[in-house]
Amino acid sequence: MPIEIKDLEYTYSPGTPFEHKALKGVNLTLSTGKVTAIIGQTGSGKSTLVQHLNALLRPTAGTIDIAGFHIDAQTKLTDAKALRKKVGLVFQFPEYQLFEETIAKDIGFGPKNFGYTPEQIEEATRKVLPLVGLDESFLERSPFELSGGQKRRVAIAGILVQDPEVLVLDEPAAGLDPQSADEMMSLFMDLNRTKGKTILLVSHDMEHVLRYCDEVVVMKNGKVSTHMPVHEFFKHPDLLREIDINPPGIVLLKERLMQEGFTIDPDCYSLDELVRQVKAQVNAHE
User: Fold this and answer.
1) In the chain, at which end, N or C, are there fewer CB atoms within 10 A of the end residue's CB?
2) pLDDT tens digit string along 232-272?
3) Are 241 and 255 contacting, i.e. CB atoms less than 8 angstroms apart?
4) CATH number of the domain at 3-239, out of 3.90.870.30, 3.40.50.300, 3.40.640.10, 3.50.50.60?
5) Which residue, among 68, 43, 72, 42, has the nearest Cα to 58 in the 3D structure?
6) Is the distance from CB of 28 to CB of 52 less than 8 angstroms?
């Protein structure tokens, strides 16, 4: 079943001088088993939106149907606990998810709350570590002694250990060097391909969006302004410029080549294929 969001609204600090309406009637249908990017300027509502997907925030108005759960303004925390086993959210700042004395306890916190035995928690923890590029030497270390990138890996491990159906990732590559970021994104794509997990990715990295995602949702002023397949979206780089985000390098290169008079296939997103097309046209004019 798809994820259905209907007339979703959310207001921070209602009835106070700080009242702010962050979501303004969001309607969205998201495909399961796909990788969907959610992009937009800071303050567009994208992080507020994804925090509704496992009921960390409850709607001011509207509804969400996800992973067999129905979320509305009356959703109780007892229902949210079961939901969070199926919908895992990794925050933009991993410090928000780390609070235990050791990494082993942090990763095992979720399974413990879902009734795993100590033996099951230990087994699950040891299995998830290599997925995020850590080894067992980290288990007894304090999460607060780690680098930013290592904290992010631990936070992701704490979600993956619960084996959720839906992974919601808010800037998952932030704080990682380029190689580590690619490794982490490859992990998520493998989970999507081999286990059919639905991935929702909040990102400012358009290279990652183009390379890894199936669909793009653009948030603007608390609403959905665009929702389309990723390759169709990048045929319209002005949509990105409207929200002050630079298109991927290959899209910029295609634009420049067309300005210089080359004819480029709109569906070309491979550098090798782009080179082939340019070379063929150059040779034809010699």
Assistant:
1) C
2) 999 998 999 888 998 999 999 999 999 989 999 999 999 99
3) no
4) 3.40.50.300
5) 72
6) no
